[in-house]
Specification:
The chain is an all-alpha fold and 74 residues long. The chain contains two helices and no strands. It is elongated and about 60 Å long. The protein starts with a helix and ends in a 20-residue tail after the last helix.
Length: 74
């Protein structure tokens, strides 16, 4: 029973760490977005490439109550 509690605690801690990292990454992408738009905003081809690169799917959830869920673009 103790191993089960320890495993669950580690899972919760890892999830919290992952959430903190994802928030940091999202903040950095927003900052980079401003720089890219300032530097390359007049080049439609580069801006289209940047738009494609920063448009990622997520967040993903493995379990959803009542069935599966299809990820949506961010």
């Amino acid at each position: 029973m103790e191993a089960s509690r320890a495993g669950r605690r580690e899972h919760v801690e890892a999830s919290a760490d992952l959430e903190a990292v994802s928030v940091d990454i999202a903040e950095r992408v927003r900052m980079l977005d401003g720089l890219v738009r300032y530097r390359f905003g007049d080049n439609p081809a580069l801006m289209e490439g940047w738009s494609s690169a920063r448009d990622v799917l997520g967040p993903f959830r493995s379990k959803v109550a009542g069935g599966s869920q299809t990820p949506k673009a961010a």
